[in-house]
Amino acid sequence: MNTTYRSITLGGAALAAAVALASCGGGGGGSATLQTGSMSLAITDAAIAGLPDGAKVMITITGVELKPQQSEAVQIDFDPPKVIDLLSLSGNVSELLFQDEEVPADSYNWIRLKVLAGRGQFDSFVDMTGDGLTGDDVSLFIPSGNQSGLKLIAASDKIVVEPDGEVDFTIDWDVRKSVFINDPQGFDDYVLRPVIRIVNDLEVGSISGTVTTELVDNLSDQEGATCAVYAFPGPLSPLDDVDDGVAGTDADDGPEPITSANLEPVVVDEVVTAWSYTLGFLEAGAYTLGLTCDAELDLPDEDDDGEVVFGDQAEAEVSAGADTVVDFPSGG
Known about the structure:
By secondary structure, this protein is mainly beta.
């Protein structure tokens, strides 16, 4: 069987939101005095709409491959493979793939996730009801990826392990931009076109807050509406929905959201008193937040999806290691 690699290049704005570490003190190459450091890697996810309540997006990962610039690739295999529900990893929640692995001290060219997601296979799948039964599962397929995984390419000196250093990275797999409900070739699979960014845990913070029930009621003008907060890079950014699952800038609309979070009810004595959200793993810097109750219409696989209207917006400044609180209505 021929296998090919699904490669994702982290460049431009994606790299700015990716890993930023000090320059490496030099890799050991293939010498007998190879210097090493310690690396941990976790995975997290942004929200999704368009799937039934309670649905799960299950991904099977058999291992990770790391490629230092000056030495051979490092293989970290999982026995048994890790089966991860991406939708359970929203906000500041993440799941470790590996922890404190000794790796060469070096700058790294790429990281490959060994993901099983072949056409018609159920190694990776959507559990439509979340009940763990197989009758309603839909397989996930990565075009051109088959069983060879996802290769995340980084520019020089963006993923760095220093001698005797300890680094922690998190892969943010944005399912809202990644899962395409309709297979354009007419197969029964859902198509997975991963939109992924990598962050250095020491360089990120979060934004959280509440939304009044009055505002949600005013914006929820149809049954089954999904309310969410989107985060856009920079201050006073234009607000836009997700376009075809492609990260970067859309010439017609503006920059793509970096991440998003669905609103969750705050329940007191069985009464919804407010709604809350958490946007995790954001690089330090300025952001524009957009609140919408049309998130269920935001389907990146459909050019003619419904209009996503943002009913309120706010500005936020994220500091590394801190949570910035932004409540709506913001008055912005």
